[in-house]
Write a structure and sequence with these properties.
By secondary structure, the protein is mainly beta. It folds into two domains: 117 residues, Thrombin, subunit H (Beta Barrel), CATH 2.40.10.220; 75 residues, predicted glycosyltransferase like domains (Thrombin, subunit H), CATH 2.40.10. Strands 1-2-3-6-5-4 form a six-stranded antiparallel barrel. It has a six-stranded antiparallel beta barrel with strand order 7-9-10-13-12-11. A hairpin with a 2-residue loop joins strand 1 and strand 2. This is PilZ domain-containing protein.
Length: 246
């Protein structure tokens, strides 16, 4: 069994970024919906999720559109958002892309641990047709294998996935596969392999998504946001349930 606790197995080299938005943590934040205003403290920011701790969290419902005013050390930031999660003493809201005027935004997209099935077919590229017509190299024709292979997705982000294949696999870095990933919906995509490990029983791969269309990106973003909120609150609940040591 592959030990997924190893951090180097989670990396597929595509989504490391600066976390300048962390400066917002501990900022006083006003949350306003139609006919009601409350104030809390921004306690967590990651990817496209913000958590705000407040005593009056019960006055808000999932799906409520809200206006946020964040009083941070680097200025006042206003944005429109939506309630996407609730827990004892806190709300989770969407962190809209490109929402912080005057603050550098290079967000780290969260990598979510999951366990989902899928299929893949190795592909090879035929560049001759593209070159003959003067087309870009990334527009080459892909030729699929005739055989499907099973995979298990172990982590996923907006840029790629980490997956396992039982036994030794012939896939190597720079290879590409046509994959169908079942994550509540079927995401059909091309993946480029960027790293490989084998533990004697299973092969583990890190792969980048190639050329997802707009609808696929939206569906993937929505899935990641739901999983991020659920995972965050689950870990928070588990942490609060642990007995304190003195």
């Amino acid at each position: 069994m592959v030990d997924n606790r190893s951090s180097n197995k989670d990396a597929y080299g595509a989504d490391k970024g600066m976390t300048s938005t962390k400066v917002l943590v501990h900022s006083r934040t006003v949350v306003e919906k139609e006919g009601y205003v409350s104030t809390g403290v921004l306690s967590h920011v990651e990817g496209e999720m913000i958590e705000i701790e407040m005593s009056e969290y019960k006055s808000f419902d999932l799906g409520d559109p809200v206006s946020l005013t964040i009083y941070s050390p680097v200025g006042i930031h206003r944005m429109q958002s939506t309630i996407i999660g609730k827990a004892e003493g806190s709300l989770a809201v969407i962190f809209p892309p490109r929402s912080l005027i005057g603050l550098e935004e290079k967000r780290e997209m969260p990598r979510i641990e999951v366990y989902h099935d899928g299929l893949f077919r190795p592909v090879t590229g035929d560049r001759s047709g593209a070159e003959a017509q003067g087309e870009a190299a990334d527009e080459e024709e892909l030729v699929e294998s005739a055989l499907d292979f099973e995979l298990t997705v172990r982590n996923i982000s907006f840029s790629g996935i980490g997956f396992q294949v039982f036994g030794q696999s012939a896939l190597e870095p720079d290879d590409r596969v046509k994959a169908t990933i079942k994550i509540g919906f079927e995401l059909s995509c091309t993946l480029e392999i960027v790293r490989k490990e084998y533990d004697g029983e299973q092969s583990f791969y890190g792969a980048r998504f190639q050329n997802l269309d707009e609808l696929q990106q939206r569906a993937l973003r929505a899935f990641l946001l739901r999983e991020q909120v659920a995972t965050y609150y689950k870990k928070k609940q588990e942490k609060s349930a642990k007995p304190r040591s003195f």
